[in-house]
Write a structure and sequence with these properties.
This protein has 117 residues and is mainly alpha-helical. It has helices at residues 5-24, 32-55, 78-109, 113-116, and strands at 71-73, 76-77. It has one domain (5-109). The protein is built from four helices and two strands; from the N terminus they run ααββαα. Strand 1 and strand 2 form a beta hairpin. Helix 1 runs parallel beside helix 3 (78-109) and helix 2 (32-55) packs across helix 3 (78-109). The longest helix is centred in the C-terminal third of the chain and has 32 residues, at 78-109. It starts with a helix and ends with a helix.
Length: 117
């Protein structure tokens, strides 16, 4: 028996993160081309890491009623690719958030032109 619940549990927060990114222009809505390249690089890196671990015999697909049952390759479920995408995008959104907060903090602590006189 298969179920899309785990896949949905990954897609819902991924979508919510996309909404936050859009609202605050943290990554994809700030510099779409650069962000897409970095996001793609992160996904490829983690996917290659997983494929190497699968080839070395470190990963084995377990049985779970919560997974969709869709395999992208031997021992590589669709949920793993979605999780890798989530992890990479989450890292970029956090980086964008911290960068924006630090920029705002630095800007607010810098003396204004009138104070410098």
């Amino acid at each position: 028996m298969t179920s899309p619940l785990y896949l949905l549990a990954l897609l819902v927060p991924l979508g919510c993160m996309g909404l936050l990114d859009r609202r605050f222009r943290l990554v994809l809505w700030r510099a779409p081309r650069r962000a897409a390249i970095v996001l793609g690089a992160g996904i490829v890196l983690f996917l290659l890491w997983d494929l190497a671990a699968i080839a070395a015999g470190h990963y084995r697909l377990g049985e779970s009623p919560w997974m969709s049952g869709i395999l992208l390759g031997p021992e590589l479920p669709l949920e793993e690719l979605v999780f890798i995408t989530f992890l990479s995008y989450h890292s970029l959104v956090l980086w964008g958030l911290v960068s924006a907060l630090l920029a705002r903090l630095i800007q607010s602590s810098a003396p204004s032109r009138e104070e410098a006189r």
